[in-house]
Amino acid sequence: MAGYLCIAQKAKVVDEQLNAEYQLALQRIEEEERALRQTWPNTELVSLFRAAQRAWLNFRDAECQFAGISSTPSPWQGVQVEECKLRMTIERTEYFKGVVAG
């Protein structure tokens, strides 16, 4: 149980970082969309970016659920699921940093 609580605390911090970087990336995408619409009025970047993030969240949750359940049955499966989410969330945060940097 202590392992799960530790992961849950880390996950909260990492989720906050993800959300902050997502907001910065979204601002960058909005700026890019405005610039592109001057030449191509039908450009849709923001809605696609948001849809991609929703799809990624679903993928992350399903992937990590599979990883946890497919491992050797143990009381640590919940921790394995959360560790997977933690790792994937950190990777996604780095991706957003790249979006912001351009």
Protein described:
The protein is mainly α. It has one domain: Substrate Binding Domain Of Dnak, Chain:A, Domain 2 (Up-down Bundle). It has three helices and no strands. It is elongated and about 55 Å long. The model has no long low-confidence stretch (mean pLDDT 93).
Briefly say what this structure is.
This protein has 102 residues and is mostly helical.
What is this structure's SSE topology?
Blueprint (H helix, E strand, L loop, with lengths): L1 H36 L8 H25 L6 H25 L1
Helix pairs in contact: 1-3, 2-3
**Low confidence ranges:** none
Helix and strand composition category? mainly alpha
Tell me the CATH topology: Substrate Binding Domain Of Dnak, Chain:A, Domain 2
User: Mind telling me the CATH class?
Assistant: Mainly Alpha
Total number of strands: 0
Order of helices and strands: HHH
Strand content: under 5%
In the CATH hierarchy, the architecture is Up-down Bundle
Distance between the termini: 41 Å
Radius of gyration: 17 Å
Helix content, binned percent: over 70%
**What is the average per-residue confidence, as pLDDT, rounded to a whole number?**
93
Number of domains: 1
